[in-house]
Amino acid sequence: MLEDPAYEQIVRWGDNGDSFVVLENEKFTKAILPKHFKHSNFASFVRQLNKYDFHKVRQNNEENGQSPYGPGAWEFKHPEFQINNKDSLDNIRRKAPASRKPPPVSEEAIQIQQMDLVNVQLNATQQQLQVLQDRYNDLSSHNSAMLQELISVHKRLLNHESVMHQVMAFLSSVDTQIRDQRRHSRVNGTHIFDQSHSHDASAAGMSPQNFSPSDDRQASPLQHAQKLLEDSFTAEEHLEQINELYRQMNGAVSSPPSEQGGRSGVVPMSQAVQPRSTTATNSTIYPRMNGEYQESVYPAGHTNGIDPTTYAEQYPSIPFPIPTTGDLETADSRRQYPTEGRKKSVAVDPGWVRAPQILLVEDDPTCRRIGGKFLYSFKCAIDTAFDGLEAVDKINGGSKYDLILMDIIMPNLDGVSACRTIRNYDSTPIIAMTSNIRNDDINMYFHNGMNDVLPKPFTKEGLLNLLEKHLGHLKEQKTATQTKSPAGSWHSPNQLAGVSPPGAPLADESYVNTMRGHPPHTIDGYPHRRTASEMSGADETVSETSKRQRVYAQPYGNAVVGPMRVPAG
Amino acid sequence: MTETTTRPIEPSEEKSEDGPPALPECGDSIDSTIFEQILEMDDEEEREFSRSIVYGFFEQAVATFKKMDDGLASGDLSQLSSLGHFLKGSSATLGLTKVKDSCEKIQHYGAKKDDTGTRDEPSDDVCLRRIRDALALVREEYNEVEKVLKRFYDSQPQPSQN
């Protein structure tokens, strides 16, 4: 084409043979381009040339600023485009603009995608951060609330401690006084003397083992304080016993105390008959209480101290709460105390030193009423909360309870959450009341700070057992007698908790016990301990008893320590 | 000291004592052991306390059934589940075994589980249908125990109402 002379005036090789020159733009465009290209656009042609790396030779390279081929001429060069070298034409290639352009485009797309991705991640991260921030705020406010609560609790504990010291000091002074009196009266009352003997003997055997364990558990100031509290409670019990003893002695020696007669209506004569069984039960019940104490009461506040595995053996029995025990006992009681059979239900008195304050958290009115009624019959002071939120509010509001019975599934705030919240600043024993008692449920309760589980539907026995288990420190020793009553109680399936047969026996025997059960204990300041074989219905209960002692070993060791007290008044 | 017997005593035997009058035959609808201990809480002959509890439960049950109807209508499974749980608790406390069991099933169905609460049931429709059936059943069971209990209380000395 370039060599075609017909076009010499339009396009030809450059003078040096290394370029071609378009001399006449217009003619080239109109006459030649259409023959070789699909268009007749010179600009397009130039663009194509550029793509193949042809470059226009600049006019200003010329000295005169004029193209040697005349104005309006376009000269194009390519290193491989030479007049005599057709082979090198193969080297003239399109500059792969297509491949060059797409890359930038896709890179951009990728970058955009990446940006999007990053943005999304950033947003997510920011949200997470926000959540964390909120959570942190919550926690920190919570924490400060906890701290305050802790401080106030600490103060209260200190106060308690000092009060307890004072009380103990006073009691010990009283004790010496009482001992003198006792020694005096012992000479007078023969049967009392005997009792004291047997009592001494058993006390010698039993007490040491009780003491040692109790000494082990003063790890933290809190425990120490609690122990002090417990001391005081048990001390009160002793005081009570001593009072009784004192009265009794007076009765035996001189005139029957009027107060006693009025209160229990029991004839003093029976005192001489029953002390044995009474004390026998004491020996079994005490160990239990202490053991429980360690396990459940102290751990309160140190939730990590609760080892779910220790409860494992109890699980099996949990689903069968209401065994025959109740039937046995109530039936027995009816037979034995026909006239009081009905009253018993109302008058059951586990023998608290003071009425335990129980918070019953339950949304179901039926359960709440029945639970409340049971508690009432056990001489507990009851407060109720409709749901977890109300319970937390009550605790926050400064209400103090000895025990909290907590339903699990409730509106607003469930029992587990409520428990976890309360645990942040309060160590009151919390019992889960629920029908969800699969093992993982139960483990979850314990992990969230619950101290025990009362399966629904609960029974009076189950409830009372639980109370005695967790409120042992509020009990008077006389309660022990309850256990002795129907031998059947020992067969109770819910042995674990199982202590006391609620029901009539309590009412009746408790007073009996008040009078005759105590004297022996108080004489030496030790509860009278006996072997299980001495108990009524003892034969088959021996093994049970020993089991208990093992499980709940060591109780009132300290309680027993300081019996002292003055006749009330 | 009065010797106590170690012989196990059946609840029915207990009833024949001067304890709570025997409940009418109600098969396994009512766990007499549990119900009796509520009766034991009554003062003297007037069964004021247990009566009020039981009649309170009647109201509660009827109201709950009504709410369950509403829940079925609106397809609110979680509401149905919690209603089931709610009534389960009170019926269990009274020893109304059958009603309790059915309520428990409703609780499970509402939670999108099978009747034992162990397996998931993904279909809302299936759950709702099961609840509908269970609700019909529990109503029957409830009517049965209601009749028994009302007869029982009617046979008791009437309280001096207060």
UniProtKB/TrEMBL annotation, chain A:
Domain of life: Eukaryota
Presence of the UniProt keyword Signal in the record: no
Main localization, broad class: nucleus
Lineage: Eukaryota, Fungi, Dikarya, Ascomycota, Pezizomycotina
Name this protein carries in UniProt: Transcription factor
Keywords on record: Coiled coil, DNA-binding, Nucleus, Phosphoprotein, Transcription, Transcription regulation, Two-component regulatory system
UniProt source species: Glutinoglossum americanum
GO cellular component labels: nucleus
PTM annotation (4-aspartylphosphate): residues: 407
Automatic annotation (TrEMBL), chain B:
UniProt GO cellular component terms: cytoplasm; nucleus
Region (Disordered): 1-29
Modified residues (Phosphohistidine): 85
Residues of the HPt domain: 46-152
Pfam families: Hpt
Organism superkingdom: Eukaryota
Keyword Hydrolase belongs to the record: no
GO biological process: phosphorelay signal transduction system
Keywords: Phosphoprotein
GO MF, one example: histidine phosphotransfer kinase activity
Protein name (database record): HPt domain-containing protein
